[in-house]
Design goal:
By secondary structure, the protein is mainly beta. 3% of the residues lie in helices and 50% in strands. It has 1 helix and 11 strands; from the N terminus they run βββαββββββββ.
């Protein structure tokens, strides 16, 4: 398995969760990485991305100011800290490896996907 996301769960609105995505060195090293999510009956959508060298991050407007993406290159691990969670954040969250030089918010910019981890936010 090249990417494996974990850390999801059930949390009340206003709470926090931290997702992790463990990668193989070949998948993670020098790679730009991203998080997407998919709610029931909806299309998968971009959440956040982070580049390899300077850790520059991009966020969807819906999570800006509440979520923080980070990475530990020594541990080949990607993180998503989610604070002030809302019921509308309920979804399966996926981590993915991006092809360089492409639009970070497009699904087709990513070519390696992990299995998802379920996040459920109760009101």
């Amino acid at each position: 398995v090249q990417l494996q996301a974990f850390g999801g769960g059930l949390v009340q609105a206003g709470g926090s969760l931290r997702l992790s995505c463990a990668a193989t060195p070949a998948t993670f090293n020098t790679a730009h990485m991203g998080w997407f999510r998919q709610a029931p009956g909806k299309e998968r959508e971009f959440v956040a991305s982070i580049v390899w060298r300077d850790a520059k991050a991009n966020y969807a407007d819906s999570v800006k100011g509440r979520f923080t993406v980070s990475r530990n290159n020594a541990k080949n691990t990607l993180y998503l800290q989610m604070n002030t969670l809302k019921p509308e954040d309920t979804a399966v969250y996926f981590c993915a490896r991006m092809r360089p030089g492409l639009d970070v918010a497009r699904m087709d910019s990513y070519h390696v996907w992990g299995q998802g981890t379920q996040v459920t936010v109760s009101s």
